[in-house]
Every structure is written in C-alpha cells, then in structure tokens.
Amino acid sequence: MTDKIITSSSISRRTALKTLGAGAGALAVAGTMPGIIGCANASDEPIKIGFQVHRTGIGAAYGRWYDRTTEAVVKRINAEGGINGRPIEIIAEDDGTDPKRGAEVVEKFANKHNCDIAFGTLFSHVVYGSAPRAGELAIPYFVVSEGHHVASGKLNRYTMQPGITDVKSQVEAMAPFIADNLGKKVTMIYPDFAFGHDHRDYFSAAFEAKGGQILEKIAIPPTETSFSKYFPKIPRDTEVIYHVMVGPAVLTFVKELGEFFGPSRPEIFGFIDSLEAVDLASPGLEFLEGTYFWEGNPRYAQAEQSEFDKVFREAVGVDDNGASVSDAKDVSTYAHMFGCWETLYVVKAGMEAANYQGVKDRQKLIEAVEAMSDMPHSFEHPQGAKRFNGKTHQTFGHQYISKVTEGKLVLAHTTSIEDTLYEDEVDYTKMSF
Amino acid sequence: MSQLTESAAGFQKPLLSQGSRSILLHVGIVILLFLLYFALPVYHSGNLARILVLAVFAMGYNVLFGYTGLLSLGHALFFASGMYGFGLAIQFIDVVPIVAIIIGLLSAVVVSVVVGILALRTTGVAFMIVTLMFAQAGYLTVLLFGEYTRGDEGFNIHRSDRVLFGFDLSQATNRYFCALILFAICFFLTAWLVHSRFGKTLVAIRENEERARMLGYDIQRHKLIAVIISGALSGAAGVAYALLFGYAGASFAAVQYSILPLLYVLLGGAGTTIGPLIGTVFMFYLIDLSSDLASAYLSSEFASAYMLIAGIVLILLTLFAPQGFAGLLRSKCKWLP
C-alpha cells in the first residue's frame, strides 16, 4: 500500500495514453482531462503533495537526490501513520530547472492534481518564477532552496523555507571561523551571477565586521571554462582564498588553482556547493587536501555521528562516504538534500497542529507553521536543531565546517544557531493571504 | 479556344472569396478561443493564457522566418528586451503599468532596429550566427547588471504593479482575456500584414531575393522593417509574460528561448498565420502530456525520459510533416493565409 502511495503521478496509464493518443489537437485533448481531476481532501484520501523536482537541466544532480530523499521520508511518515491518519501521496513533476516550466508545474499541482501543497524547489530562479503563481493560486509553497529570497521579503505569504537555512545565514556564520582560524586577509573568487553576488555581499560585510579585510573580489563570468588568467589577480599577501565556484567547470578550476600555487598556497575555504555530487577522489582534486569547506550537513559519517543522521543516511540509501549504497560513484548532494526530509516533517507537524482537512485549511497550515519556533535535533531534523522564524518564513540552524583530510571531509567546527541569525527583513505575518 | 471556353464554363466560383474565408477563419479562431475559456477546466484555461502569450512570440518569429525567409537564432533578445524594459521600469522608475508597457515595447523596437541594421549586413548562416551572438550578448548583459536585474535569479513583479485599467491581471479571468486581446491584435495584424502589398513583397524576397531586387524593391528596407515588426511582436510577448505571470528572469534571454519560437513555427507551419498558434499549443502539450505518460509508466529514476518521448515525436514530425500542421492543411486548402 505504501509503495502504491509513493507514485509519481495520479494519472493512470490508460488516461495518459488516451489523452496523448487522441491526436485531434491539444485543445481537443484538453477537453478529455476533466475526468482525471479528482476531488481530494476527503478524510480518507491521501494528502497530495506536489513535488517540483529538477529532473532535467542544470539542477538534475540535486533533483535526483531530492527525489530519493523525498521518497524515503514519505515512506517513513506513511509507515508512522501518515498525517492526521492520512497517507502522503507525492505527485512529482519535472520543472526542467526552468522558471517558466516551474510556474506551469505549480499551476498543474494546484489546478489539475488539486494538491494540498507544493514543495521541493531548489534553484533560486525557479523559486522566483514559481512563487508568484503559488501566491495567486493560494497554494502553500515549501521551498528547499537555501536562497535568501524568502527571508528577504521578495516573495509572498504562501512561500516558506522551514527545512533548510538560507545563504545569508550560512555565509555570515563562516566569517568568525575564518577570521579567527584561517586569516584576516581574504580574496574572494565567485561566479558572476546572483548566487556569487550573495556570497560577495554577505560575506564581505560579515567578515569586515569581524575586523577582516577583503583584498580582492574576483568575479568569474558564468560561461568561463578556463580560470588561469584570473589567478594573477590574487594579491600576494592573501591569507585565505574564499571560493564558491559551481557547475561542471569546478574540476578545471581546482586543477588550475593547484597548478598556479603549487605546494605553497594560502589557506583555502570553499562552499561544498562546488562539489556536491562530485567524488572528492576525482583526478585533480588532490590539491584540496587540507582545505576547508562549509557543509550544510557532513557528507562523510563522522566519528561523533548522531543516531538521527545514521537513520537518515540509511533511509535514503547513502553510505558512510556520502555515496549511494548501490553505486559508490553516485555521490549524493548531502549538504542540501536533508532539507526535503525536514521540510516534510515540518509540513506534517503544521498540518497536525492546524488539524488540516483539505485545501480550505491551507491558510490554517501557513499560520500553524508561522507559529513554530525551536525544533530539536531529532529523527525529524537529522541535520541538527532548528529555529524557525515565522515572520520571515525562514529557518535557522547549525552550520558545519569540514577539513579535507586524507581525501575525506572531517568535521572541524560546528557553528551555533546564534551565529547564523540576522535582523528580520520582512514580516510576512502582516501580509494578507 | 474551345477548350478554354469549356474550362471557364466548368469553373465554379467559390461561395466565399479568398479574403472572406481568411477573415472568417481568423475571427472564428478568436471567437473559439474566447469560448474555450468558459468550456475548459481551469488548468487548461490557465495553460491557454500562457500559450497565447507564447504564440504572439511565435507570430513575431514567423514574420521574419516564415514570411521573409530570415532564420534568426536571437529572438530571445527581443522577448527579453520587452520583458526587462517593462520589469525594470516598474522596479526602478516607479511608473504606472501602462507607461511601463510602452517602455517595454519601445525597448524591443530600439533593440530590433539596432540588431536589424547590423545583422542585415549579413545573409544566410552568417545572419543566423550574428543574431545568436547578439542574443548571447544580451543574456550576458542581463547577468552583468545583476545589481539591477538580479541576474539569473530574476525578480518578481508585485501584484499591485499588475493592475491595468483597474483590472487585476493576477486574476485568472483578467489574465486570460488580456492574453486573448493581445493575441487577437497580433493575429489580425499579421493576417493583414501578409495580405498587404508589403507582406507580399516579403514573400517575394523569401522566394527569390534577386528577382525582387531586379523588380525594383528596396530589399534592405523591407527586411529591416520585417525585423522591427518581428522584434516588436516578440517584445510585446515579453512584456505580456512579465505583466501576466509576475516574473522577469535571465533564462528568458538564454538561447533556449531563441530555439523555442523556431520550433513553434516549424511545427505549426512556417509562413502561415495560424501556424504559430498550432505549433505553440502542440509543443506545450507535447511536453506536458509526455511528462504525464513517463510518470505513469516509469519509476522516478527514469521519469526524465519524457524528453526522449518528446524528442522522438519531434523527429517524426520533421520527417513526415516538414511543412508543419498548417502547411499540411494548406496543401488541402490553398486559400489558407
């Protein structure tokens, strides 16, 4: 029964074939669709959760692991009795990591599948493209994006991020560690688009507030494939290089950085976003030995591994090295994917607090989540304790800093939640629905 | 002579002239689209609103590719010019939506004039590459000025900025009819254009540029005007997307959005007025329904294979209906514009 519940779509094969095969033009096909628009939310029917997943496009590697994590957590929640006694049904739809398709997918969840909520988006541009439609359709939209877009107040009351911390809090929490342990003079190397700009702006401000100095900010154009020409811009007195390169060129970036510095390099601090789903044993990454990384959740099982992480890891199918148990080369996106697990447990808690019965209770669900605050380290929150801010719709939590030691990431420092807090920039609770 | 007389005697005058049929067809399609809003389930009427906006984009592409014979790979630039012209005006100049719409349209026109003047110095494959390069430069410009455009992330246009003449365009009904009005205006405009002397000259240029030149037509001027009309229509679609769906982002300036209108037009039928609409509808539902099909049959690990389904269908269509759906229709109905 549980396996049946965790399906990708509520559309039957017969209906899908029928609709595709009609052949009389798409609008004529459209006319055959009303029959499949079921009326959910009767008390014995499943809670329908629309899962906006990056199955294709630049976010596909993340999407694959978000998919596995979501399947694992839904299986667990359903085995525990579901939400208010009702099982969860996941309706997954690829958004192509594209904001236009993302908005269409949210419309599909709301208007075709009659989903209770939409959930799961990672890439910021897809969140930006989809959030207006979620607000207009009045469907709660739980993103797992780590972007600052939610807490910045640029979205709407229906959009929330309760299961993963945002980039501003992550970056600001790194500044004290770097200033106290690695050096006071930093050169930043970042991609020249919004994600890189967030790092540039938030880290610079936080680091300078700690008495540090940003010597140079080197923006790399997103289409760049070779980086050697940028490295001479690194000032000689640089004590720490801070890098956040992402995308397929990251291996070239690290290799060329190693060739440039040779054995005498400054301290290096990076964000694991650069190497999510990438095997640290990949050729060229040897240069990273002894460098530091931010990790949202430690990829390698640590000596002090919590029982919660152990259960989470096993449920999703990840080994002690952060790879799939069935394929050691299939490395997970461990620093982010826990967000799907924790978000769905927040949804469960919110629906139970609101006594959620159906789509008419969506506003009650939003209010119930807004009322949440501290969430203890637990099976529901295996990454660590969280503190949710109902006003900004953003959660805050511990950040991890690991050092590459003998080719593995070994935990070197854990920040407090207080290190990650910043002043509220919005109060969504004052916005109307 | 006697044979000619017999042929003339056997020739039956059609009930309606070619022009009347064309008018009936175009008005009929708009009326059908009007009625469909009330007949379709909400999901599909929402899709249709988006399709109508994208069909305007395709119509703009069709003017240049279908009627003038110029294959551009840079139309994302025109779409994005309209989108950002509108969006940035709303964000930073604090103007009312109607003024922002005009700014968006003007942005697309100015960009198309510049691109037209420079790109039309080339022909054939070179024209394709130059337009592609212009579009790529536009995309990188959006990223470069990320402080204002928010780069790849883009930005939302607040609901209060999407109220036009008292109509809240974030509401489904208002959005649909706004999209339909825009579509109808562009649809009738292109229908009139292709029947006009100017439109027939464009077709003459497409069919044999040297002969048209020899007959005394100013080829460059006609091509430039075609680029401007094409850019303006594409820009109007960009403005409408931002206005109706509340988002402007760099992905709309990327090469993918230069390929899409080409696909819409090729599938629907290049050089036909109804082709862009048919192609856009087909492409939208091909992706949507093949995604449903893959989800129904395949596990989540393989669900992305729906793109393969869509790809195979596109290859088959290209092989067996290279003139597109409306092109097939035109082989039966010669009067189809």
Task: Specify the CATH architecture of chain B.
Answer: Orthogonal Bundle
CATH class of chain B: Mainly Alpha
Helix fraction of chain A, binned, reads 25-40%
Number of DSSP helices of chain A?
12
How many beta strands in the DSSP annotation of chain A? Answer: 17
**Low-confidence spans of chain B: pLDDT under 50, at least 5 residues?**
1-9
CATH class wording of the largest domain in chain A: Alpha Beta
Please give the radius of gyration of chain A in angstroms: 22 Å
Secondary structure class of chain A reads: alpha/beta
Q: What does this entry look like structurally?
A:
The complex is a heterodimer of chains A (433) and B (337). In chain A, α4 packs parallel to α11. Chain A has 433 residues and is of the alpha/beta class. Chain A is built from twelve helices and 17 strands. Chain A has a seven-stranded mixed β-sheet, covered by helices on one side. The two termini of chain A are 36 Å apart. Chain A has two domains: 2-165 and 337-397, 3-Layer(aba) Sandwich (Rossmann fold), CATH 3.40.50; 167-295 and 398-420, Response regulator (Rossmann fold, 3-Layer(aba) Sandwich). Chain B has 15 helices and four strands. In chain B, a hairpin with a 2-residue loop joins β2 (163-164) and β3 (167-168). Chain B is mainly α and 337 residues long. Chain B is globular. The model of chain B is unreliable at 1-9 (pLDDT under 50). Chain B has one domain: ABC transporter involved in vitamin B12 uptake, BtuC, CATH 1.10.3470. The interface between A and B is large, with 59 and 59 residues.
Which helices and strands, and how do they pair?
The complex is a heterodimer of chains A (433) and B (337).
Chain A (H helix, E strand, L loop, with lengths): L1 H4 L7 H9 L4 H5 L16 E7 L6 H20 L8 E7 L4 H14 L4 E3 L4 H14 L3 E2 L16 E2 L6 H16 L2 E7 L2 H16 L3 E8 L19 E4 L6 H12 L5 E5 L20 E4 L11 H10 L6 E2 L2 E5 L2 H20 L8 H9 L3 E2 L10 E4 L4 E4 L2 E6 L2 E7 L19
Helix pairs in contact in A: 4-11, 5-6, 7-8, 11-12
Chain B lengths: L1 H9 L7 H22 L2 H26 L7 H19 L3 H23 L4 H21 L1 H4 L5 E2 L6 E2 L2 E2 L3 H24 L1 H11 L1 H6 L4 H27 L1 E2 L7 H13 L6 H23 L8 H15 L3 H9 L5
Antiparallel strand pairs in B: 1-4, 2-3
Helix pairs in contact in B: 2-8, 3-8, 3-11, 3-12, 3-13, 4-5, 4-6, 4-11, 4-12, 5-11, 8-9, 8-11, 9-11, 12-13, 12-15, 13-14
